[in-house]
Amino acid sequence: MLRLLFLALSLPGLAAGAVVIPLSRVELAARSDAVVRARVMSQATLRSPATGRILTRSRLLVLQSYKGPARTELELEQLGGTLDGATLAVPGDAQLTRGEEVVVFLRCREGDRCHLTGLALGKYAVRAGEGGKRTAWRAAQGLVDTRGRALADEAVPLEVLERELRSRP
């Protein structure tokens, strides 16, 4: 994530968004320590003790684990949020909301505290789709490739995404 953030900050003239290398779902999974379907149970905004920057921590109840150790809960930490009237926004990062069901691709370096792999590329919201079939939807708002082209949102049937995640090496 730090490399992606650095790239986004070092090339501001390319586009009005976070510059990322577009990764396939297979590549995201390969670069992740954990991939889970989860529900966002709660969120808290705080200042980093180390840097003073605003952080948002989301507590996730794991519904299904596709990669990584079996866990019942995880904590997702993201740079940004609103605290004491101050807002820090990270262009191209995913937004989570309490109660939302998600499939997330995570890097977990500090026990059960994780970070998204690839900013918004690492989050799919699970929604009701046509005919009652559930869809995993990824918003690419604010993401551009290294040539400055906006990435497109993506919708995939949840059963297809889950099959891909279960069959990966």
Structure report:
The strands form 3 sheets. The chain has a 5-stranded mixed beta barrel. With 169 residues, it is of the alpha+beta class. A hairpin with a 2-residue loop joins strand 5 and strand 6 (86-88). The protein has 3 helices and 12 strands; from the N terminus they run H-E-H-E-E-E-E-E-E-E-E-E-E-E-H. The chain is globular and about 45 Å long. It has one domain: OB fold (Dihydrolipoamide Acetyltransferase, E2P), CATH 2.40.50.120. It has helices at residues 2-10, 25-31, 158-167; strands at residues 18-19, 34-47, 54-67, 73-79, 81-83, 86-88, 101-110, 113-116, 123-128, 134-138, 143-144, 154-157.
Any descriptors?
169 residues; alpha+beta; OB fold (Dihydrolipoamide Acetyltransferase, E2P); 5-stranded mixed barrel; two-stranded parallel ribbon; 3 helices; 15% helix; globular; disordered N terminus
Q: Could you give a short description of this structure?
A:
The protein has helices at residues 2-10, 25-31, 158-167, and strands spanning 18-19, 34-47, 54-67, 73-79, 81-83, 86-88, 101-110, 113-116, 123-128, 134-138, 143-144, 154-157. The protein is an alpha+beta fold and 169 residues long.
Strand and helix layout:
Blueprint: H1 2-10, E1 18-19, H2 25-31, E2 34-47, E3 54-67, E4 73-79, E5 81-83, E6 86-88, E7 101-110, E8 113-116, E9 123-128, E10 134-138, E11 143-144, E12 154-157, H3 158-167
Parallel strand pairs: 1-11, 4-8
Antiparallel strand pairs: 2-3, 2-7, 3-4, 5-6, 7-8, 7-9, 9-10, 10-12
Strand composition percent: 35-45%
The level-1 CATH class? Mainly Beta
The residue-averaged pLDDT reads 88
Shape by Cα distribution: globular
Enumerate the strands of the largest sheet in spatial order, edge to edge or round the barrel: 2-3-4-8-7
CATH architecture: Beta Barrel
Helix content range: 10-25%
Give the ordered list of helices and strands: HEHEEEEEEEEEEEH
Q: Strand count, sense and closure of the main sheet?
A: 5 strands, mixed, barrel
